[in-house]
Amino acid sequence: MKGRNISFGVGIDIGGTFTDIVLLNHEGTLVTRKVSSTPEDYSRGIITGLKEVFSKHGLSGENISVALHACTVATNAVLEHTGAVTGLITTRGFRDVLEIRRFRMPEMFNYHWEKPEPLVPRERRLEVEESIDLEGNILCPLNIEGTKDVIQRLAAKGVESIAISLLNSYANPLHEQKIGELVKKMYPDLLVNCSSELVPVIKEYERTSEVVVNAYVRPVVIKYMSKFARVLKDVGIKAPLLIMQSSGGMMRVEESMRTPFKIIECGPAAGVVGCHHLAEKLGLPNVLTLDMGGTTTKASIIENHEISRASAYEVGAGISMSSRLSAGGGYVIRVASIDIAEIGAGGGSKIWIDVGKALHIGPMSAGAVPGPVCYGLGGEDPTLTDANLVLGYINPEYLAGGTVRLYLARARKAIETRVAKPLNISSVEEVAYGSHMIATSNMVRAVRAVSTVRGRDPRDFILVAYGGAGPIHAALLARELGIKRIIVPPSPGVFSSLGLLFANMEHRVTRPFYHLLNETGLADTANKTWQSLESEVMTEVEEAEYKDVEVDLERFVEARYHGQSSELTIPLPWYPVKTEHIPLLDKSFTDEHLKTYAHKREGEPIELVNIGLAAKIRSRLSPAVETIKPAVSIQEMAMPRGSRKAYFGKYYGWLDTPILNLESLTHDPRKGPAVIELYDATVVVPPFCTFSAGEWGTISIELEKEINHGRS
Description:
One of its GO terms (molecular function) is 5-oxoprolinase (ATP-hydrolyzing) activity. The protein is 31% helix and 25% strand.
């Protein structure tokens, strides 16, 4: 593989525990590397990983043609309240819209629930005198002198970023534009964020929330991305840098620093994009995705070959069923995103007992430092990784391809002293297995949040399990949900990084379009709006300097029944839209409403609220993706063999379990138990499953049809 003429794309995904690096060239050759994350300075882990890959394979930064990245920096800034000092300028009378919110409670019967504190406190939320009606007519001109005074007051409070959200600015952005110009003229160093530019749609609370989130995280993201770009240059990478969006498309790094609200959920999105590509390769229309890393577990759904998307979501809302149904638990982001449910359960999640002697897993995590007790880096609280090590699922000599050594005795002692003895349980393995089952039960909630809550039966889907810990828990989780088949993708431990290489560039725009579906002349009005959006999107594509590319345009509407407050996104396969297409759109909306909410309103007027367009540019690595060679062929490490004892609950007890690698699998099904050790992950196959090598470097696991035993 050595040579100056070999060109690779590199995908880099930074997690709370590990940093994953994947290189793919135009011949489909895959190189992977997994290194410990360095939370005090994430760039250290990136540099270490890239240098190790370059040194081992005779490459350099000159071999990289494009760099793709997903991160959690924006998410963490919101969750940990470590964003910039931010100010908000709004219309007189709407200063408190961030606190009033939508009068929704994610925990209906919790009388002690407290709504999240606004990211901008009241003293930095100031009003200006102006008024525009819903049709864009100016009722009261902007008070320029009063606005200057407001800007000066915010600057005196030390703000770094200013959010501007005026009532009905989506219909006429003039006043927001004037305020933005004044800020730039008076204080050139302040960052300006206008709602009419970022999210020009109705609903003043959602629009204000989003522009505030953007303003809050923007200085943090600018600092992070600037440093990340410098790190790449330090290792000789001069290639373009692209960033994953929450929608599953890529964007230029410059755009991510202007609109960071689009990358809040970019990390989990990459893995779902990878699953979608894998499902297409394998001919699987309906798939549930499960991504379990060191800190969190993420679940999503692919139905009828389409990734499930949401037009809005809440960051920091948690994962309870009620929070996803009634909302109100987090900060609203009004942007297209992949529908992902996330919980605080990962390999590093701590095992603990409360005052009532109940056993819990997470959401607190040991992270990369000090990490689980078995890492030997000073951790004292037992974690899920410690439990899985005690159960015999993890090889103490072969984590991350043997680069991380684990200490079994320390893990056993920590579980015994901190959990087993306080609970008066003599068996350490029973506590470990109980922890394993509780963690799996928590993960079931995440899968149900994207399936059952949306009216989908998990039994009709195939589970794709990835992440460093996902394939360890997948079989038990599938049993609880009644899922019959599991697919473990190639390089599962770094699959999210691989997903970056599958993703296309994407530009998405949405505009208000308030019309009834049965309105006369609707088709012509919609076509004219789409023509305008297409012109806007293509201008962005040209400004991005894409040469000789094929652009796919996808059109959609956001619709609801009359009187509803939330919308469903409906794709439009027909263009231009004709009058005869309107009944088909009616049926598409009705069918989606029935699937999502389990009912439909016959004869109820349907309202179109927003109209949108997404331009997608195929990845430069697409040809390579079609011929990808699994990473196992180029991992020059001693692969595990033999057997060891593994514990599968009281019914099965300790079993002699074959230890296999990917190359030893065949297409002929074998009965469990087995542990399949890969460079970047471990696959646990319990006794109630069969397994075999699948297509495209995958592992296929089938559950027995009737399982009436072994649940403890």
